[in-house]
Amino acid sequence: MQTAKQEVMELLQQLPDDSSLEEIQYHLYVRQKIQRGLRDVDQGKVHTQQEVEKRMKKWTER
To answer: Model-level pTM greater than 0.85?
Structure first.
């Protein structure tokens, strides 16, 4: 398993040399969200399509 620093260094190597700080932050943000989602799946913190649709229906009925 890579350390966070190693992951960042790998990401930086994949990005173009002229990447802005904003672009780098965006890629780090996306990677973090993906990792969090995968961890949630591993821990069973997921919802079925039906559960999501039921929740969304409550939001759209207003």
So the answer is: no
